Amino acid sequence: MIDIVNLNKTFSNKVEAVKDFSLSVEKGEVISLIGPSGSGKSTVLRCIAGLETPDSGEILINGKTIDFANEKEAQKQRIIMGFVFQHFNLFANMTVMQNLTVAPVNVQGKSEEEARRLAMKYLKRVGLEDKADEFPSKLSGGQQQRVAIARALCMNPEIMLFDEPTSALDPEMIKEVLNVIRGLVDDGMTMIIVSHEMNFAREISDRIAFLENGRIIETGTPDYIFNSTENRRVKAFLDKVL
Amino acid sequence: MSLLIAAIATAMGLILGTLGAAAKLSRSKFLNALASVYVEVFRGTPMIMQITFAFLALPALVTLILGRPIRFNPLITGIAAISINSGAYTTELIRSGINGVDKGQFEAADTLGLTYRQKMRLVILPQAFKQILPPLVSEFITLIKDSSLLSTIGVVELMKSATTVGANYYAYLPPLTVASGIYLVMTLVISAISKMIERRLAVSD
Predict the structure, then answer these.
(1) Residue B121 at interface with chain A, using a CB cutoff of 8 Å
(2) Spatial separation of the C-alpha atoms in residues A201 and A219, rounded to whole Å
(3) Per-residue pLDDT tens over the stretch A139-148
(4) Which residues does B63 contact at the CB level (< 8 Å), separation at least 6?
(5) Chain A residues closer than 8 Å to B104 by CB
(6) Tens digit of pLDDT for each residue in A176-230?
(7) What homologous superfamily does CATH list for A2-241?
């Protein structure tokens, strides 16, 4: 579904964030990117979503290369992606309901009524149907992140990208967000997740890629990564965080 | 009349300021430079000079170009001059307001597929507007007071009326006191209204 070929990204401060990164994601697959801070996990995800422009390399969606120079066309191709941020980024000037309907109405041309129906469906799904008319600032971090997931789902994405979805949350709120993501996995949603929740990654992933200094240095099933890899860096990292 | 002048100038200034801010934030180097020159020139020269220039010097220039004498209407010229001046200040206000909106709001709009215009109109500008409302109101209040400068080119507004009445009756104390009081009432009412709007906008905080 998504093929990433030899992606490179160097920031203006000469930091090489991503080096020759390649990855293929099949439909229905759940892939976790793990690794130390600054290893380029988030940058890869942001390149896929169009929030960063890679210096070289290709990203193909369903076999079609994204033309980075043509921003409008690239944005259209990326419409099949839902993105969930570490800091939620709900629109502060809109109620929860408006957050959920703004894109379906303005981008997909859905009627206000249809968009609201869809929004209620996904709000129920994340357990927040009673918060439809609240402003984001009135919600807890965990609730905001669940709304952010619902907002992405309202665009009916084929793949969901999660950029450290629980890293900004208080410990007691992490579970409610992970449960929502788990529900999506059960539905067969394709996903790429950047996460520091190792046990969660192990539980839900079909494949885990371990990144260091912008490269994938090890990849495999959760069982392989957590139990039988011989890679010292991976072992050392997992020993530290588990 | 003073209120009308200030209201029109603020509205025009808001439009010019939005355009100016868009130019300043655009990727075109030419538009950046154009907007910077605009802001610097009109912030860097006295408003009374701009008004006088527009009324007395500009007609001479237009006469040269058209080849026949022309006289500007003082009221329209004055409002235009104040509007353009206000636009320069508002450009900076709006630019700083937009820059003050969290980067994540832009990114979220991008990932949802909103176009640049939709992103600005639906997400960014409403939040920027909320932040710049207080300085925008003080700009409006400044303009109410600065509208008195138009008396120098013969526009009959509050200041001019007061001095005319004073000259007629050889007594300046009562008309100037009354006129000052009216300025004060206008600005106090505007302040109160803006506080009300701020409170209403605070629901999303």
Answers:
(1) no
(2) 13
(3) 999 999 999 9
(4) B69, B70
(5) 85, 87-89
(6) 999 999 999 999 999 999 998 899 999 999 999 999 988 999 999 999 999 888 8
(7) P-loop containing nucleotide triphosphate hydrolases (3.40.50.300)
